[in-house]
Every structure is written in structure tokens, then in C-alpha cells.
UniProtKB/TrEMBL annotation:
Keywords, sorted A to Z: Hydrolase
Boundaries of every Isochorismatase-like domain copy: 4-142
GO MF annotations, alphabetized: hydrolase activity
PANTHER family the UniProt entry points to: PEROXYUREIDOACRYLATE/UREIDOACRYLATE AMIDOHYDROLASE-RELATED (PTHR43540)
Stated family: Belongs to the isochorismatase family.
The organism's place on the tree of life at top rank: Bacteria
Name of the molecule in the record: Nicotinamidase-related amidase
Length: 176
């Protein structure tokens, strides 16, 4: 079964907002596993020039740049939470006969969630790697004391029975 990795929104405008070094390190470890196996990787960049209050905007183009070395992997832009809002993503995946999509990146409760749901709806097998996701939001953002955003969203997706949710160690054990 052909596999691909979608890396969502690991951009300056996000990593500058809080300490996301732990999820970024885990994202990099998943990327390394894919590169070692020569499995396709695509980077998605959230670009929305019209929303001046966007955390990625900052009136500085540098905040849109991906902080990881994308090497020769494609970088596609999107302006909505789902990576599939850019029709080039599905075309890229179909051209490579991708059947199984793995998702890592930011923000878990928006782009990761919507991309996972859309990928499943588009007919792909989907695995979200929970600890290789992150968010700049907190329990205070949602006024929900004790909320662990990654765990909450990961649990919902996992319980759906449609989307596999793993940790990096489980991914490595099962797929590499």
C-alpha cells in the first residue's frame, strides 16, 4: 500500500507564538522515517493574505515560511483548514497511487482535524500521529479547564473508527 506524509503548517508564524519544540522534533522524526524509506512527503503552507488578524500574517512574509528543511519535497499552499482545499494535493496523491495518508503538523484542532476528516472522505486510509501534532492554543483559549487539545481531538478521531490515531513510537513499530 502506497503511503504519503502530509506535513501541515510548520511555519514561522506558529512556532514563534509558543514553545513547540517537542512536537516539531517529533514531526522531524516522522519525516526522517519517511525519507529513509523514500515514501512521498508533501508540505502544506497556510497562506491567507486577507485576514490581517491571522496568527500567520503578521504583515511579514517571513512568518509564512516553513521552519523545516523541505528539501526537494513539494510545498503546496492552502487558505482553509483542510489541506485538500488545494485541489493539487489530491492530484499529487493520485499520481503517486497513494492509498494511506499520514498527518502531522499544526494546529491539531483545525488543520490536522479537517485534513484527516477530508482525507478519509476522499477515500484514503488515514493515520494521524497525535504527538507529532501541536497547537498554539490552550485550555484558556477555549475556556475549558484541563483541556488537552491534542488528546481530545485524537480521541474523537480514533473513536470514529474511520481514522487511526497513533503516537510516533506506535507508528515506528507498526509501519517502519
Amino acid at each position: 500500500m502506497n503511503k504519503a506524509l502530509i506535513v501541515l503548517d510548520v511555519q514561522q508564524g506558529i512556532v514563534r507564538l509558543c514553545d513547540v519544540s517537542e512536537p516539531v522534533a517529533k514531526i522531524q522524526s516522522v519525516i526522517t522515517e519517511f525519507e529513509e524509506r523514500d515514501w512521498p512527503i508533501v508540505y502544506m503552507k497556510h497562506v491567507d493574505y486577507e485576514q490581517e488578524d491571522s496568527s500567520l500574517y503578521y504583515k511579514e512574509r517571513a512568518n509564512l515560511e516553513i521552519v523545516l528543511d523541505t528539501k526537494l519535497h513539494p510545498v503546496l499552499e492552502k487558505s482553509k483548514p483542510s489541506a485538500f482545499s488545494n485541489s493539487e494535493l489530491k492530484k499529487w496523491m493520485v499520481e503517486r497511487h497513494i492509498e494511506h495518508v499520514f498527518i502531522v503538523g499544526f494546529n491539531m484542532e483545525y488543520c490536522c482535524l479537517f485534513t484527516a476528516i477530508t482525507a478519509e472522505h476522499e477515500g484514503f486510509q488515514v493515520t494521524l500521529i497525535e504527538d507529532a501534532t501541536g497547537t498554539v492554543n490552550t485550555e484558556e483559549t477555549y475556556e475549558m479547564k484541563g483541556l488537552d487539545i491534542q488528546d481530545f481531538v485524537g480521541s474523537i478521531l480514533n473513536w470514529s473508527g474511520c481514522i487511526e490515531v497513533l503516537y510516533v513510537d506506535e507508528f515506528k513499530e507498526m509501519y517502519t
